[in-house]
Structure formats: C-alpha cells, structure tokens
C-alpha cells in the first residue's frame, strides 16, 4: 500500500538538543576542543559594572567563527543560518526556542572589542597546534593577496592640496570634517610621473568615433574613498581594479598551519610589509620556544633591505631576486676585496660615493678616471657620449648576489616548490571557503580582525583533522593478540555454550 506522510506541526514536549547532535559533528567536537572561558577575562575591562547584560563574549566569538566556517560574509545571513542548524545552536549554547542576537548587536560588539582580543584568540588556538606537534617553526612561507573592501570604486573622490579647497569641498565646514586621507601627500616628482603616465594612457585609450565615455584614470595619490578611507585602489593580474586591503600570511611548512596574519594597505609593495610581519612572527614563535631558520617568499618580497635584515638575524632568505637585478654586468668583473669593477681593457672603476634616488633608495656609484677612458680604444663603443664610464649599483649588492646564488641552486628550486605548495593553497581556501572574498567591515582594524578570525577557523579545522587522524591511527595500532582476545570474549558472551 502506498504510504503518505502527514505533517501535524505539533508541539514536542520532550526534546534534548544534545541528543540530536551526533558525536562526530564538527561543532560538537569544536566545542569540546577549545576552552573558551579565557575570553571572559580578556574582555572584562571593556564592560561597565552596571547596566543591562550584554551579548556573551564567548557567544560572539563563536558566532563570528561560524561565519568563517560556513563561508558567510553578511551578519544578517549568519544569524538566519544559525537559527536553522541544530548543531550550531548546540555549539552556541542556545536552545531551540531561544532568540539569537540581532545582527546589529554582532556588528557593534565587533567594533567594541580591540584587535588585541582577536589576536589573543589566535594565539590560544596556535598554542594548541604547537602542543599537538603541528608546528615545526623552522621554515615559514610568506605571501599576500588582496581582499575586496566594503566600498565601491565608483564613489571615490579627488584629493585636494593641503591649504586649498578641492572640488568636493564646497564649504569650510566640509573641509574641517574631511578625513586625513583626502589630502594629497605624495611627493611632487611622483605626481609629475603619474600625470605623464595618465596622459599617455589617455592618448592610447581614446578611440575616434566611440560613443562610450573614457574610463576614469584613478590613483591612490590623487583619489580616496570617503566610505572607507583606509581602502586602497589596487590591481590584481587578470582582474579589474577595485578597492582592496592586503592580507599578509605566514604559514608553517610542516602541516600548513597559519602562524601569523596581518592586514596591510594595498597600495604599497609586499616587500615593505615584511619587517612588521617578521617581527610578529618571531615574537609568536619565541613564545613557544621555536626558532625560525628559513623564510620562503616570492619575488614581490625581493628587497635589498629585507635581504640585509634577514641576514642580520641569521635567517636564510629563499626569496627570488627581482627581474631587474643583474648579478653580473656584461664586460665588467667585480673585485669584492677592493670593492671595484674592471672593464675589458683592465681599467679600474673603484667605489666613489653613495647616492639616493628621489624615492629614498640608496645606491653606490663607481666610475673610472677621465684619463683612462679618453685614451681607451674601446671608448666609442663603451661610452660614446660621456667623458668616463660610470656604474650604479644598489647599496645591498652583496645580499642581492648571495640571494641570487641561492635562487640558482638546486635547493633554491626545491624551496620554491615548497612555498607554492604551502602558502598558495592556504590563500585559496581562505578566499573561497572562509569568507575572505569580501570584507563586511570598514577600516584597517576591522579588516585585521576579520583576517584573524579566518585564520583561527582555518587552524581549528587543521586541529580537528589531526585529532581525528590520531584517533584512527590509535585504533589501527591496536595489538592483534589483544584484539583477538577481545573478539573471543565477545563471542563467548554472545553465544554461551
């Protein structure tokens, strides 16, 4: 006979939430894995001793971690999603008939808590990863990726020069409340170079007879976002321009655990953020008595000062040298002991002086005497329009040269593959599965908190997976005689003779 299920929507008298969540459930195991009580002490000084009770700090952090684990960016969607899941309600400590906090309460609490509390949670989870043997500490892979900001590129405004009124400042009152990011701070030579480059682009992009308006030529030196002044215009290869933040990560190569994360401005090179990243990474590793020896990064971190910094701290930098650097100059040989170059004719070009560029980069200048060059038969092909031959090298030529030699070695090629297989998959997971495709907060501090939460959720997944593998390995490693004895006892009890 055909069956037909009837739904009566009756009120259930006896219902226990813990009985409906299985033992192997992710959130049930997560609730048993982490001791969340330390968050009460970390946030106690942020509340008054009077007034209405606030949202439980532990509930808040569990909620925002669920948002990362479920790949939910919106707080409103997060609350709606949690209300439909019994396992998440059990993880949060809410009954089925209890109302979850409003999404605006989550947003206000996120703004209330400083970034130090989020970092404390990250350190707490990282300490458990170290205790489980998931972190070796000696080799770290570093990389960065842009994350879309909560602002639109269409709403950017033009900056004004200090002491003047820009096109968007109609009154003195508007100028008084304008953010600091609305003032042009770039040096004059950079603005001239930018204007020349935009003029060339405007000539090449203009098509005669086209009805489409010409694209806006935007730059962080001349434009800013009034919605989120900390967001910066950046361009990712293969993607359109957008307002972004930069997420910088350090990943341990032993098991892929994130050891450091920070939010940076997206309008500067990756190499400029390495000193701050290295400082935070080493502080965390030293707290667990771990020593860093090798640092892996891509060519975006190639910088002479970074090479010198890592060598001063006795760290091996496996960072490919940037493409513009050449270890050898054709036709010239370098004498490291005397710090001079020799040309094909055997004439010496000794070191003469230090110099700086307009951007503040230091360089070393080498040149030969005018008498040597004037009497040289190779002058028409070497320096046809000058009195003497001059070479300009970076101040950090020696660290560059050693990094280039490591890059060409067999181990350097191996380290490049290790970096690609370690940190790049982590970024792919964070962006596509942990809610870092777009931020739902504004400001550099808010971006840093969101990135910390995504890293905490990723490390928790690593911790849970390792714990499950340990349990399976323990079951497989059960001695066979003991297993046979248990089997005989079970059969004897089940079928007594």
Automatic annotation (TrEMBL):
Transmembrane segments: none
UniProt domain Transposase DDE: residue ranges: 343-464
Origin: domain of life: Bacteria
All copies of domain Transposase InsH N-terminal, residue ranges: 16-111
Any Pfam family the entry gives: DUF772
InterPro entries, per the entry: IS1182_transpos (IPR047629), Tnp_DDE_dom (IPR025668), Transposase_InsH_N (IPR008490)
Name this polypeptide is given: IS1182 family transposase
